[in-house]
Design goal:
By secondary structure, this protein is mainly alpha-helical. It has 3 domains: 5-146 and 154-256, no CATH class; 266-277 and 409-532, no CATH class; 292-393. The chain has helices at residues 20-28, 32-46, 56-75, 82-98, 101-118, 122-134, 143-157, 162-166, 178-194, 199-209, 219-223, 238-260, 292-311, 321-333, 338-343, 345-364, 374-391, 395-407, 416-431, 440-452, 460-481, 498-517, 526-532; strands at residues 271-274, 277-280.
Length: 537
């Protein structure tokens, strides 16, 4: 019975791959996954040297088909591949029989790699792997043997598991010769002459051999190149197959991006489509956690206190201009009808946050802060407490504040200057498209940009809300661009089409990418969105 990867024979050293009999006997004692990985990587390395003076399109298609399923089997050993592998093996064997020279050897190696992936008895999978090695490529590309030996040694030493080997580069640093790289470039150009549709396979191979493979590539992405999601139209030729793969990739890209785009969350800016433009969601009808009478009973004395301070201790001409600025804004935002105050609740909440940060700076005795008397400091501290108690009665702010406390770790360490610059960039881009953006949106973003740049008032809540506001805007447009309907959005007449939404996302992408660069973990979903829309991030 074949042993598992953890039961590999660590005593018997690997035989020389150039000695077929001894190497095959050694492989029989090793886990099946080793033979699958080795055989698959032999075939992948042989692929660039395949030369055909006949139907190169047919030859290369069969080799790509076989190497793709062989690699899939090596990376996902528990995924059933027998049916897809059987067709690929027959295809490659037929190519080997009707070809000659290097193309015949490359096709035979690919067929052997598929055979290894489906064999179960140790003698069978070892023989299949050894069969791939028997096709001597030393004259076409001598570095193949060096690379094979490194693979075998990595498995024997335990440096890599078979699955890890399957996603490592085909040539370790320093082992990809100039000739091997040149052969692949020549092969790529030859294929592109046949048609741009070959780019799907060129990109696939580049990700394995030339670049570091994307370890985050999903099983679904790897399966796209095989018959596992459904049989590809192999009988109709390379163009039909490659175009189908391209469509699969595009569909998968959209599905991946769609699954990652977040829904809108509580923040100073949430958006909707209204009258054909992206507009701010109104807060006028948002709930209160108290009766309007009780809210006014809190609000009116607070407003009186604010106005008293502005007229006395913090009047114009004193050296506490930043306190006066915050008090003045609160004095303007808090009065009025309750519905109007609800509409301004995030602006009020931000002013309170900045006011709290300012008081903390005074208490810390920062070098750039003027001296404030103890009675004045106690007075504004009492006002701060009253303000924080009352603002929590506005439920959308309260919900946002609670979420910010729980989630602000995701934006901890954000560069506030870059965040502010990104907000200004996005605001400017919206101002250039007044047909699609309500003017209140850039006004809101510029206010948020000012707040995050406040050296003492840019609390974690302030920065978190600014970032979430942009995320809400971009996610709304992204969902519209991908044709996603969430939470009833499709029930609204869509004046902003998918094409327009795509254009708007791209137009805002510079600022969004800048914002992403300011975050420790970035906006992880944004680049996949751009890719799904056909734009590089």
């Amino acid at each position: 019975m074949a042993r598992t990867t953890m039961q590999a024979d660590a005593v018997d050293p690997p035989g020389d791959p150039r000695n077929p009999d001894r190497f095959a006997k050694w492989l029989e004692k090793q886990p099946r996954e080793w033979s699958v990985a080795i055989a698959g990587r032999v075939a992948l390395r042989a692929l660039p040297i395949a030369r055909s003076y006949g139907d190169i399109s047919s030859v290369m298609l069969s080799i790509f088909r076989a190497t793709a399923i062989a690699r899939f089997a090596a990376r996902y050993p528990n995924h059933p591949t027998a049916l897809a592998a059987a067709g690929a093996r027959q295809h490659a064997e037929a190519t080997a029989r009707r070809s000659s020279g290097s193309s015949a050897r490359a096709a035979a190696a690919a067929a052997a790699a598929v055979a290894a992936s489906t064999a179960r008895a140790s003698a069978e999978y070892a023989a299949a792997a050894n069969s791939a090695l028997l096709w001597d490529f030393r004259y076409e590309e001598p570095t193949i043997w060096t690379a094979i030996e490194k693979d075998v040694q990595a498995l024997f030493n335990g440096t890599l598991t078979a699955e890890q080997l399957a996603v490592s580069t085909l040539w370790a640093p320093g082992t990809l010769s100039v000739s091997a790289g040149a052969k692949w470039m020549e092969q790529s150009q030859r294929l592109l002459v046949l048609g741009g549709h070959w780019q799907v396979w060129i990109d696939w191979y580049n990700g394995l051999a030339v670049e570091r493979p994307a370890l985050g590539r999903s099983e679904a992405e790897d399966a796209v190149y095989t018959d596992l999601p459904g049989e590809l139209p192999w009988d109709y030729g390379a163009e039909a197959v490659n175009l189908e793969i391209a469509q699969r990739l595009a569909k998968l890209s959209v599905e991946t991006a769609a699954s990652q785009i977040p829904d809108q969350s509580p923040a100073p800016l949430r958006v909707e489509e209204r009258d054909g433009r992206v507009s701010k969601v109104a807060d006028r009808d948002s709930p209160l956690s108290a009766s309007e009478r009780d809210f006014k009973a809190w609000r009116d004395p607070v407003v009186d206190h604010v106005n008293e301070l502005v007229a006395s201790d913090f009047a114009a001409g004193t050296n506490h201009g930043r306190v006066r600025d915050r008090l003045t804004m609160l004095g303007r935002l808090l009065p009025g009808e309750i519905a109007d105050v609800k509409e301004r609740q995030f602006r009020i909440g931000y002013e309170i946050e900045r006011f709290e940060g300012l008081i903390a700076a005074y208490r810390s005795g920062a070098d750039d802060m003027p001296v404030m008397g103890a009675p004045q400091l106690e007075d504004i501290d009492r006002l701060k407490v009253a303000l924080k108690m009352g603002i929590e009665k506005l439920e959308r702010w309260s919900e946002f504040r609670k979420q910010a406390n729980e989630m602000s770790a995701s934006t901890t360490g954000a560069d506030s200057e870059i965040v502010g610059e990104a907000l200004d960039q996005i605001a400017e881009a919206m101002e250039e498209r007044p047909r699609y953006f309500d003017p209140e949106l850039p006004i809101t973003l510029r206010f948020l940009a000012e707040a995050v740049r406040d050296p003492v008032g840019a609390t974690k809540t302030v920065i978190y809300g600014a970032i979430k506001s942009v995320e809400n805007l971009i996610s709304f447009l992204g969902q519209r661009a991908l044709g996603i309907g969430r939470k009833g959005v499709e029930a609204v007449e869509a004046h902003i089409s998918k094409a327009v939404a795509t254009s708007l996302v791209v137009g805002l992408s510079s600022g969004a990418l800048l914002l992403s660069s300011a975050l420790p973990q970035g906006l992880a979903w944004f680049k996949p969105l751009l890719a799904a829309l056909g734009y590089a991030g």
